[in-house]
Fold this sequence. Notes:
The structure is a homodimer of 153-residue chains. In chain A, 49% of the residues lie in helices and 5% in strands. Chain A has helices at 5-18, 28-35, 39-51, 76-84, 87-90, 108-123, 127-137; strands at 55-58, 64-67. In chain A, a hairpin with a 5-residue loop joins strand 1 (55-58) and strand 2 (64-67). With 153 residues, chain A is mainly alpha-helical. Chain A is built from seven helices and two strands; from the N terminus they run H-H-H-E-E-H-H-H-H. Bound molecules: iron/sulfur cluster (SF4) (2 copies). One iron/sulfur cluster binds next to helix 6 of chain B. Chain A binds a DNA duplex (30 and 30 nucleotides) through residues 4-6, 25, 27-29, 38-41, 43-44, 46-47, 50, 57-65.
Amino acid sequence: MLLSKxxxxxxxxxxxxxxxxxxxxxxxxxxxxxxxxxFHFLTKILQQLTAEGILESFxxxxxxxxxxxxxxxxxxxxxxLAIDGEQLLTECALGLPxxxxxxxxxxxxxxxxxxxxxxxMLENTTLTELVEKGRAENLRLTTDGGFDILFQx
Amino acid sequence: MLLSKxxxxxxxxxxxxxxxxxxxxxxxxxxxxxxxxxFHFLTKILQQLTAEGILESFxxxxxxxxxxxxxxxxxxxxxxLAIDGEQLLTECALGLPxxxxxxxxxxxxxxxxxxxxxxxMLENTTLTELVEKGRAENLRLTTDGGFDILFQx
DNA sequence: GATTATTTGGACTCTTTTATCTTAATATAG
DNA sequence: CTATATTAAGATAAAAGAGTCCAAATAATC
Lengths: 153, 153
Ligand code: SF4
Ligand code: SF4
């Protein structure tokens, strides 16, 4: 798998948050219900994103999680790096340690192009962009429901 | 990681075999030594590739493993499919079940492009091509050694 | 101050992947 | 036929990833 499950959940949750009114704290429980992700597992993932400064948390009643900066400044790459690290973009195709152009394997050239495509995609896509697209076309973030179910209270 | 470790080892071993005289059986032990991969683990992986008809095995003294068809007809994709399956090319970015253009997620369009780049790279690269490149430029298939160490007896 | 809603953090379990070990089967050579 | 070199197959073990559970901390409300 390209991204770990934790990372995928982190992306889905971040998209969910980006779809909410700016500044509003959303309880993890509500997110985990809507997104059909284990509450406790999601909690751990959001803690990582909070620690990285991408999200902000607040305890107690009316507490929850929100984005720490505007959704149009958060790239997918930010979330991937926070959860999966830079492994995807450094280590690669033949998995040899200490990779790079100084000591390449035969696949390096071709793989480097592909890897750049992945990197570009993650860097050039923001949460807001996807939320707008999802909202406009009612795309899905869960197995069944369309995008709209995320906005019902 | 894009590819599982089994898959990466399978690729390295296949490249090794493609670098050998056509028709020659190479014992797994020699491969595992040269490529610095656990013998027993590599054995299992090669069994899969043999079962898929990509490699051919022969028991007993003078036995070993060889490619079952010319290296210039074996795409990297063949090996990836045999070991990791089509998961990489079907399941994807947001990991939602039953994906596809009929029921897409907001990332679908962007991801589909990236995925096609990966697919293209794996489909348009043959073992022979990489072996020739590796040989010409003495690229590496192991942590330390250059390509040439693979050809010492 | 007590109760309740929430996040935090740690321990624990389950599953999959990765790796090792042991025995059997097969082929060759003497 | 025996010894040896090899792959095949299955059992087991270790490590990593995914998921669960519980107690503690914090904040709001009554
Ligand atoms: S040489 Fe390049 S393609 Fe090969 S493993 Fe290293 S970074 Fe990846
Ligand atoms: S909709 Fe497309 S990008 Fe999204 S998870 Fe499915 S196949 Fe992947």
